[in-house]
Amino acid sequence: MPVVDFRTSPGQYRHWQLAVDGDVATLTMDVAEHGGLVPGYELKLNSYDLGVDIELHDAVQRLRFEHPEVRAVVITSGKDKVFSAGANIRMLAASPHEWKVNFCKFTNETRGAIEDATSNSGQVYIAAVNGTASGGGYELALACDHIMLIDDRSSAVSLPELPLLAVLPGTGGLTRVTDKRHVRRDLADYFATRPEGITGAKAVAWRLVDEAVPRARWENSVSERVRDFASRSARPIEVQGIELTPLPKTRTGDQISYSSVTARLDHERGVAEITVDGPRDHAPADAAGLHDRGAAFWTLVMTRELDDLILDLRTNEPELGTWVLRTRGDAGTVLDYDNLLLRQRDDWLASEIVLYLKRTLKRLDVTSRSLIALIEPGSCFAGSLLELALAADRSYMLSGVFEDAGPEASPAEITAGALNLGPLPMGNGLTRLQTRFYGDEAGLTAVEKRAGEPLEAEDAEQLGLVTFAPDDIDWDEEVRIAVEERASFSPDALTGLEANYRFAGPETMETKIFGRLTAWQNWIFNRPNASGPDGALRRYGTGQRAVFDRKRV
Amino acid sequence: MPVVDFRTSPGQYRHWQLAVDGDVATLTMDVAEHGGLVPGYELKLNSYDLGVDIELHDAVQRLRFEHPEVRAVVITSGKDKVFSAGANIRMLAASPHEWKVNFCKFTNETRGAIEDATSNSGQVYIAAVNGTASGGGYELALACDHIMLIDDRSSAVSLPELPLLAVLPGTGGLTRVTDKRHVRRDLADYFATRPEGITGAKAVAWRLVDEAVPRARWENSVSERVRDFASRSARPIEVQGIELTPLPKTRTGDQISYSSVTARLDHERGVAEITVDGPRDHAPADAAGLHDRGAAFWTLVMTRELDDLILDLRTNEPELGTWVLRTRGDAGTVLDYDNLLLRQRDDWLASEIVLYLKRTLKRLDVTSRSLIALIEPGSCFAGSLLELALAADRSYMLSGVFEDAGPEASPAEITAGALNLGPLPMGNGLTRLQTRFYGDEAGLTAVEKRAGEPLEAEDAEQLGLVTFAPDDIDWDEEVRIAVEERASFSPDALTGLEANYRFAGPETMETKIFGRLTAWQNWIFNRPNASGPDGALRRYGTGQRAVFDRKRV
After folding, report:
1. Stretch A53-68: mean pLDDT, rounded?
2. SS3 annotation, B189-201
3. B75 by DSSP, 3-state: which?
4. Helix H or strand E encompassing B251
5. pLDDT at A469
6. For A12-38, what is each residue's pLDDT tens digit?
7. Are A66 and A17 in contact (CB under 8 A)?
8. Please, which residues 139-168 of chain B have a Cβ atom closer than 8 Å to chain A?
C-alpha cells in the first residue's frame, strides 16, 4: 500500500466539486473511474475508495471554517441515474483486513462529521439522491438530515451488502435506519435483503427517505427544500471565513513533524512517541485577535496537526501498536487559549475550533492503538491538552523530578480546566472525566472542586486523575515494562479490550456504530464466508456463487 | 460433538452442591476433573465447561421455583485455595468457533439470570471467593451482588485472558468491571494485563471486590454478611415452593417434541419449524388454583419447553439457520392465563413465571438464527404468545383463509394484551412493542389503543404489527421464497444484521455484553492471533510462545 496523505484542497479534488452560492453549498460527487488510490480497480458508478472519502472529509471540514456563511449543503451526484454505488467492491475484496476496517472507520468518522455540522453548526446537509443509491451510497444519504429521492421508477435506495457480498453495510447503515430514521425493524430486515432496493412512495412510507420527487419537479423541489432549510438554520449571517492554509509536514521513515506536533516512529519497539507542543506565544485578548490569527491560532494548528497525524499513523503504520503521548510547554498559556475559546463561545470561529478539537479527540478514542500518556517535568497537560491523558488507556506521572537529567526542574503538574468539564464530550455523550469516574460521583466532584489548580503527582494520583505516579527511581523501569509488555500482547485482544473499556456507561448512536456495529462487521470481514477464497466478497462479479459454511455462530 | 441435554436436577449434579438452610442457600462449586462433557480435557482447579454451567443454570432456576424461601445465595468453592480457574482452556482451544461462541452466550445468560434473581426476586447472590478466582471464575463473582475475597496473601482475582490467551474475558467481565462495579478504566486496563491478578486491600480499593477478609475471620464474616443480606431482602417469607418436575421430551433426528412445543427439524432446507400450543384447559380462577397446578400450569410448561428447545437447537443444530414460529390454539384462553398472572402479580409464583418467560424471550432475542413468524388460521398469537411474533425478524399473516385447506376456518387474528405492554422487557429495557415502534410514538399509541381487540390481517398490517399480510393466492410462494432466500444468505452476515436490528434504541449493560462485547470476542476468537495454529489459545500450556501478526486492526 502507498503512504496515504490525507491533506488535500478543493483545487486538487478529482472526485468531488464543491460550489458555494451565497448560503448554499453543493457537493457534487463525480468519481473519476481511473482515479483509484491503489491500482487494481475502477471506480465505476460513483463507487468510492479511501481517496474519494478523503476529499469529502476535506470538503466537510472546509465548509465549516472557510464558508461559515453556508447554512445548507446539498450532496448530489454528477452521474446520470446513479447517486453512488457505495464502497468499491473490488477494492474491498483485494484489501487486507486491517485496511478494510480502517477504511470503514474513517468513512464513519466523516459521516459523523456531517451530522456534527448539522447539529452543532447549523450547516444542514440534504441528500439530493438523483439516481440509485446503493450500500455506502445510501449510507452517505443517511448521514444527511433530509433525504430526497428522485421518483423515476428506477432510482432506488438499497443496502445490498448482505445478499450480494455477505458482509454488513460498513458505514452505520443498520444503526441509522432504526435509530435515526425509525424504520420499523422488520421492514428494515426486508429492505436489507433486497439488492434491488426500494423506490419512490414505498421508500417514503417506510421512512427510508423523506420525500420522493418526480423528475419533472426535481430541480425546483431541491432548490425549494434547500432554501427552506437554509432559512431555518440558526447559523449567524454575514460572517467571514478563514482559510485553512496548507499544513506543513515532513515525513521520513522514522519521524513525522509538524509545527506543534511530532511523532517518532520506533518500528523496532512498535511504538510511536508523540509530542504535542503548547503555544509559543500568548493567547490573543479577544475574538478579533483570534480571527486575525485564523489558521495560525495555536489550538487550531495543534488540532489540525494531531488530526492529520492520527489518520496518517492509523493508515500507514498499523504495526505501531502503542502511542506514547507527551506534551511540552507552558500549562498557563494552554489554559489562556482554552479560556479565550470559552469566553468567545458565541463567536462562530471559537465554536468551530472547540468542535473540531472534540471531533479529533473522538478520533483518538476510537483509534485501535494502546495509548499511554507520560506526564513529566516540562509538560503542559492542562485543559485541552489534559484530554490527551484522559483519553489514554493509562497515564504515568513522575513524582518529583529526574534527579540526573533535570534536578532543578519544577515537578510535573496537571490542571483540570473548563474545557475538561463539558465542551469536549466523547461519543457516549459524557466527558472523559465523567466516563473516568462513571458511577463515582464523589470522585468526579472532588476533581471538579480542584479545577484550575495545578496538581503535582501525589495529588493527581490521589484524585484518580493519573494511573500511576512512580518516582525517579522507578520511572524508567516501570514505563519501559508498560510499553514493552503492551507490544507483547495480542494486537487483536488489545483492540477489543480498549474498545470496551474506553466507553463505560451510556451508549449513543455513535458508540453503537463504532463499538457494536463495527465489531460485528470486523468479525464478518474476517470470516471465510465473506473473505475466504470461496467467500461472497471475493467471488462477487466472477459469475460463481459463494460457498458458505452453513453453521450459525 | 455429542447431543447436549440441558435437563438436569440436583440429584444428578457432578460439579455443584446445592444446600438450602432456611432462607440461605449455598452453591458449592467442586468440579469433577474427569467429568467433562466432551473427551480431551480435564477440568482442573474448578475450571468449567458447558456441562458445569448447565448445572449452575439449573440450580439458579430451581432456587427461584423450588426454594422461594431463600433470600440469600452464597456461591463458593469446595476446593482448597482456588475459587475457580474459569472456562477450561483446553476445551476452548479444541472447540470449533461456533461452539466457543455458543458456550459464552449460555454462560452469559446464566450470569444474567443470577443478576435477575437478585434484582427482581430478592434472592441476593454473594460470592464467597475463598481462593483465587481467574477469568470466568472472577466473572462468576462479578455476577453476584457482593464479592468477598479471602485475604491470605495468595488468593487473587484476575482477568488473565488477554495476556495468557490473546482473547477477551468471555462472560461480561469487561463490561461489569466498569459499568457495574465502577472500577476506573485505567485501573481496569492494568488489571486485565496482570495474569497474577490483584489481592486483598488493593482489590478492595480498586473496587474489584467489596471486602477482603482474613482467613481467621472468613467463616464468621461470610455467615454474618449472608444473614445481613437475607434480612434485608424484600422477598416474602413463609412461602412454599413448587417442584420443577422432569421435562418430558422426545428427540429424534428430525423432531423434538414436548407437551406444548414441537419442532420439526428440516436439515435439507436448514429450517426448524417450531409450533407452540396454547393451553388445553381453562385458566385457574385464582392464586390457589395456580399453585395447585404448579409445574403443570400452562405458561410455565410452555416456557420451560421453549427454553429447553432454544438451548437444544442452538447447541445441537447450528445448521438450522432459520426458525419458523407458529402457534396453535385459542387466543382467549392464552389471554386468560396472562391475565391471571397479572392479577396475581404479588404472588411469588405468578411473578416468577412472568420473569422466567421474560428471560426465555430474551434468550430468543440473542439467538443467532433468523426468526420468521407465520400467523395462520387456528393460531393464537395473543399476549404472551404474540411476543414470539414480535421477537421475530419478520412476520407473515394470512389475509383471509386457505381456500382449499380450510375454507370454513376463521381468519387468523392477533391480539395485543397487557403482557405486551410492560412486564416482558427486552435486554435494552424496552418492550418488544416499544422497540418495534422506536421513535414512532404515534404508532405505539395506536397499537396500545387497540389492546385486547382481536385484529385480522389488514388491521394488523396497517398498525405495523406484522410485516406482510399476503392472501391465499400469494401465501405459499411468498413464505417459501422468504425461507429459501434466508437459507441462501451468509449465516455470519445474518447474525450480524439481526444482532443490530433487534436492539434499536437505548443500550444497557446487558445489551452491551451481548451486542458489543460478544461481537469483539467473536472477532478475536476468529483471528489467527488467538485461534490459528500459532495463536495464543492453541499454544497455551505447550511452552511455546504465540506468534502474532502485529498489525493493529
Report:
1. 98
2. HHHCCCCCCEEHH
3. strand
4. strand B250-252
5. 98
6. 999 999 999 999 999 999 999 999 999
7. no
8. 161-163, 166-168
DSSP letter string, B408-471:
TSPPP-EE--GGGGSSS--TTSS-HHHHHTTT-HHHHHHHHHTTTS-B-HHHHHHTTSSSB--B
Give the best residue of A323, A437, A490, A501 to mutate against chain B (max B CB count within 10 A).
Answer: A490
* 3-state SS class at A242: coil
The pLDDT tens digits of the residues spanning B341-355 come to: 999 999 999 999 999
Rounded to whole angstroms, how far apart are CA atoms A544 and B275? Answer: 37
Looking at chain B, how many residues does it have? Answer: 553
pLDDT of residue B535: 94
Q: Which of helix, strand or coil describes residue A17?
A: strand
The reported pLDDT for the residue numbered A518 is 87
Contacts for A278-282: CB closer than 8 Å, 24+ residues apart:
A278/A327, A278/A328, A278/A329, A278/A330, A278/A331, A278/A333, A278/A334, A278/A380, A278/A385, A279/A329, A279/A330, A279/A333, A279/A334, A279/A336, A279/A337, A280/A329, A282/A333, A282/A336
Q: Does B440 lie at the interface with A, CB-CB under 8 angstroms?
A: yes
Burial of A280 (0-12, 13-18, 19+ CB in 10 A): exposed
Which residue from A168, A440, A485 is facing B496, i.e. has the nearest CB? A168
Calculate mean pLDDT across residues B535-550: 91
pLDDT of residue B237: 80
Q: In angstroms, how far apart are the furthest CA atoms of chain B? A: 79
Q: How far apart are CA B77 and CA B75, in angstroms?
A: 7
**Within 10 A of B40 (CB to CB), how many other CB atoms are there?**
10
* pLDDT of B193 over the 80 cut: yes
In angstroms, what CA-CA distances link B99 with A529, B37, B197, B317, B526?
Answer: 17, 13, 28, 11, 12
What residue has cell string 395485543? B416
The cell numbers describing B334, all together, are 392464552
pTM of the model: 0.96
Instruction: Report the pLDDT averaged over residues B395-421.
Output: 96
> Integer distance in angstroms from the first to the last C-alpha of chain A?
33
Interface touch A436/B184, C-beta < 8 Å: yes
pLDDT for res A238: 83
Q: Which three cell numbers stand for residue B72?
A: 440469600
**Alpha carbon B427 to its chain's center:** 10
Per-residue pLDDT at A1: 67
Residue A353: which of A293, A403, A398 has the closest Cα? Answer: A293
Assign A72 to helix, strand or coil. Answer: strand
Mutate to test the interface with B, among A523, A526, A537 (most CBs of B within 10 A): A523
Q: Do B490 and A519 touch (CB under 8 A)?
A: no
pLDDT at residue A515 is higher than 90: no
CA A145, A150, A153, A155 dihedral sign is negative
**Does A194 touch chain B if contact means CB atoms closer than 8 Å?**
no
Q: Which of B4, B123, B129 is nearest to B61 (CA)?
A: B123
Q: How far is CA B535 from CA A171, B40, B281, in A?
A: 30, 19, 57
Query: Using the beta-carbon criterion (under 8 Å), do B489 and A184 form an inter-chain contact?
Result: no
Mean pLDDT score, A92-113: 95
What are the grid coordinates assigned to A296, written together? 495560525
SS3 string, A370-422, reads EEEEEECCCCCEEHHHHHHHHHCCEEEECECCCCCCCCCCCCCCEECCHHHHC
